[in-house]
Amino acid sequence: MLRSAVAAALGVLLAGCGGAAGSGNGRLIPGGARVERDLAPTDVLPADLDLVVRIDLERMRAGIGPTTADALSKRALAQAAGERELAEAMACADAVWIGTRAAAIDTGDRVVVIEGKECVPDLPRSRWEKVRSGNGRLAIFDRKGEAPRAGTARIMNLGNRATVFVSPVELDSVKRVLDNGPDEKRANPRTEGLVSVDLRPRPLPPGLAGRYPSIAAVLAGIERVRGTAVLVDEGLSVDAQVIGVTAAGAQKAARFLEGVRDSLKEGRFGDAVKGAKVDVVEKTVGVKVIVPAKVLLGLVGGGEKGK
Question: Is domain 201-304 annotated with CATH 3.30.1360?
Answer without folding.
Answer: yes
